[in-house]
From TrEMBL:
Family of the protein in this entry: Belongs to the metallophosphoesterase superfamily. YfcE family.
Annotated Gene Ontology cellular component terms: cytoplasm
PANTHER family registered for this protein in UniProt: BLL5683 PROTEIN, METALLOPHOSPHOESTERASE
InterPro entries: Ap4A_hydrolase, Calcineurin-like_PHP_lpxH, Metallo-depent_PP-like, Pesterase_MJ0912
The protein's name: Putative phosphodiesterase
CDD domains associated with the record: MPP_superfamily
Length: 251
């Protein structure tokens, strides 16, 4: 089974369209959707409808902190531009779309895989996995052989051996990585809709569960179109300008 692992779409229609097309070309049969479908971008309703359609076709989907903020209110730690985008998004979703976001689980297990937005040790707290220490804590909190999470907008791979030795790896796009069976693994695909590693190309990952292979992908997309959608969205102009300009810089 080939999985497409997609996270942090952030209402970026152009990025999601490009990633879904690439995933189909890669022969992906299932989708693991790791949260933050809304926030920042100009097309939240369209993105949610695409996610709902994928779920109806068998995709696994979990809730992210921006999804929670839209339906339950923002956490105190959320930045001002993000709060503004959350408020704007809430006013543009219909009751069915809001209900879909509100009812998403914080985590989901399937076979040897755990799907969660931020981490396995406190999914509702949305703490970031910023390095090996947090990754090890997350891996120790689950029996899952493979943990897939988002929240961090940069691709990263961590592993934990049976003796408790942890390691990390910054992946190269398009290179298949064998996930050795004697280790636990935690993969962060990077953001589909708002990469923050200086490369504006959309991120996602492909996981071959039968062969135990993982590859991180970068997909160019219409960044100018995504920025134009934000600028035309009705968000306050200074916020829209900042959010739109970040896309081209990959930050």
């Amino acid at each position: 089974m080939r999985w497409a692992l997609i996270t942090d779409i952030h209402a970026n229609r152009q990025a999601l369209e490009a990633v879904l097309a690439d995933a189909r070309a890669q022969g992906c049969e299932r989708y693991g959707l790791l949260g933050d479908y809304v926030g920042y971008g100009g097309d939240p309703a369209w993105v949610i409808d695409q996610v709902r359609e994928l779920v109806a076709q068998g995709a696994v989907a979990v809730q992210g902190n921006h999804d929670s903020a839209v339906t339950q209110g923002a956490l105190p730690t959320m930045r001002e531009d993000a709060r503004t985008a959350v408020s704007w998004t809430r006013d543009r979703l219909n009751p069915e779309q809001l209900r879909f976001l509100a009812e998403l689980p914080l985590s989901r297990s399937e076979g040897e895989c755990l799907f969660v937005h931020a981490n396995a040790y406190d999914p509702e707290g949305y703490e970031y996995i910023q390095g090996r220490l947090e990754a090890m804590r997350s891996l120790q909190a689950t029996r899952a052989h493979y943990t897939f999470c988002g929240h961090m907008h940069e691709p990263m791979l961590y592993h934990l051996s049976g003796t408790g030795k942890a390691g990390d790896f910054r992946p190269v796009a398009g290179v298949e990585i064998p996930l050795l069976s004697h280790r636990q693994w935690l993969a962060i695909p990077g953001s589909c809709g708002q990469p923050r590693d200086g490369n504006p190309a959309a991120c996602y990952a492909v996981f071959d569960s039968e062969r135990g292979l993982l590859s991180f992908q970068r997909v160019p997309y219409d960044v100018e179109g995504a920025a134009a959608s934000i600028l035309a969205s009705g968000l306050p102009e200074p916020v829209a300008q900042r959010l739109a300009s970040r896309l081209a810089r990959g930050e």
